[in-house]
Amino acid sequence: MEARVLTEFEAGAYRLMRLRSVKELPSLASPEILRELTVFAERTAGLLSTYASQGTRVWGVFDDVSLAGVVAVTRQLAQEKPKWLSLWGLYVRPGYRGTPASRVMMEAVIAWCGRQPGEPKLCTRFPRDNVRAHQLFDRYGFVEIQEQMSRAPTTGQIQTMVIMSRGL
């Protein structure tokens, strides 16, 4: 398995991955993912290039030529804390869960974030009831720093979110 930053050439596969994630787990669709899907509905080309020019990186993990998972990191979501990088949109296809896919992807993301200037922190947020996400981020040294209430973008229901961070 190989993790790498996605290029515009892979935008179509990335779009399908995002659609699959929302179909499978609508309650976990973050505002960032829903915004992406709106852009993709208008046009597929250009989103990954726009992300790159704005400092957002989107990684994919590949099993040979098949896209098995995706994750993104951006500074834009943490503007109030400029040294913070926000990890969002982590999704691994069901057939690849329990394989090295998430490990390979997380190691690539953490290594890239560790090369950023200053002493950045990597943060993420997810619904409190997402036990698998909590276990994954615990495994990579993230610690819970805050809990907040949020309205789920797809259902409108109030949910408790966990915010975790990791020094790099």
Automatic annotation (TrEMBL):
SUPFAM superfamilies attached to this UniProt entry: Acyl-CoA N-acyltransferases (Nat) (SSF55729)
Record protein name field: GNAT family N-acetyltransferase
Any Pfam family matching the protein: Acetyltransf_1
Domain N-acetyltransferase: residue ranges: 1-168
Organism whose genome encodes this protein: Luteimonas galliterrae
